[in-house]
Amino acid sequence: MADPQPLARSPWTLPSALAREFDPDRAGRKARRTVRDWVVDFTCFLIAVVIGMVGADAVGQNPHVSPGIAELDQVIGALACAAVWLRRRWPVGLAIAMVPVTVASDTAGGAATIALFTLAVHRPFRYVAWIGAASLAAVPFAFWLRPDAELPYLAAIVFSALLMASVIGWGMFVRSRRELLLSLRDRAVRAENEAALRAEQAQRLAREAIAREMHDVLAHRLTLLSVHAGALEFRPDAPREEIVRAAGVIRESSHEALQDLRQVIGVLRGGDTDASGRPQPTLAALGALVAECREAGMKVTLDSRVTDPEAVPAALGRTAYRIAQEALTNARKHAPGAEVTVTVSGQAGEGLTMAVANPAPPGDVPKVPGSGQGLIGLTERASLAGGRLVHGPGSEGGFHLEAWLPWAP
């Protein structure tokens, strides 16, 4: 699609009707002649004068026209040539006025031709049809009043009719070309606006995806830090082994959180891989995630019924991993001490199903800050992958989360 900007940079080389459309600064203003308009108007006036002079000479040598009528013919023709300068302001009125003028004056033939051409350029076809038909009907009457000195009556009528049809056709071609230019300009503007909207939407989706990824990645690590730091705070008299173990988990979780943060920053900088070179997690890494949770003190049971986790597509496996990661993080925060069961099943062509469930916690549930954004993000992630996710209280007072993701064969 052509860009309209190059045309908009030189509005004075366009017709005034197009200049108002292509130049935003001229839109809504009163139509003023451009440099091109002045050149075209002067050329039209010159053509009308030249044709009028030829007509005046022919009238003067026509034996069927008296000298007085010839002088009157020339005066009317001169006034008609002067009226050509009004063709842009009143194209319809000028064309209508030229119908009787051409009957009374052969010298006005050039001005009448210019008026008919202007009408075809600036007005719809219905005006051209009526006024052109009237002009064509006046031709036989004009040659009946003043027969041509050289051409037979019928030949003169046919020649004039062909000339009028050619002028009208040329004018309509110019009009259609201008309308095409305006249509192309509108389409180019719409295409640019749609491209800008698509780019803005893509940026918004990218920001949402990065925010979702950051939440899923860092919430897991920071929850580990919170849980073990809370244990150290509320049990300062714990055995040394437990304190050392909790401190080790805090240190390891902090290190992993920094690595994950570097990964997200690498994505923000425009790369698909992070600066540390760590691969994105897939379904095959689910076992390592469960082992990490067990080391942190959780009771997790993994029931994987997928024959070959390595065969799961990377995008599908990453989505499933993030769902399990967020579900385990929520269970650690809101159901400490409860045993969590993670079930993964499915195969290519049927889809991948993941369920994470836990019963009610055995003791009091600590108040942990949270707004439910993680579950909202998981629902959006599953929806973007073409799947679905449901969650809610379990039958025995716990919590149950189940997701289904499409797995192409």
UniProtKB/TrEMBL annotation:
Instruction: Please list the residue ranges annotated as the Signal transduction histidine kinase subgroup 3 dimerisation and phosphoacceptor domain.
Output: 207-270
InterPro entries in the record, alphabetically? HATPase_C_sf, Sensor_HK_TwoCompSys, Sig_transdc_His_kin_sub3_dim/P
Q: Where are the transmembrane segments?
A: 38-56, 94-120, 127-145, 151-173
EC class (word): transferase
Q: Name one GO molecular function term.
A: kinase activity
User: A Pfam family name for this chain?
Assistant: HisKA_3
* Catalytic activity from the UniProt record: ATP + protein L-histidine = ADP + protein N-phospho-L-histidine
Q: Which keywords accompany this UniProt record?
A: ATP-binding, Kinase, Membrane, Nucleotide-binding, Phosphoprotein, Transferase, Transmembrane, Transmembrane helix, Two-component regulatory system
- The EC number of this protein is 2.7.13.3
Q: What is this protein called?
A: histidine kinase
Taxonomic source organism: Streptomyces alfalfae
Q: What is the lineage of its organism?
A: Bacteria, Bacillati, Actinomycetota, Actinomycetes, Kitasatosporales
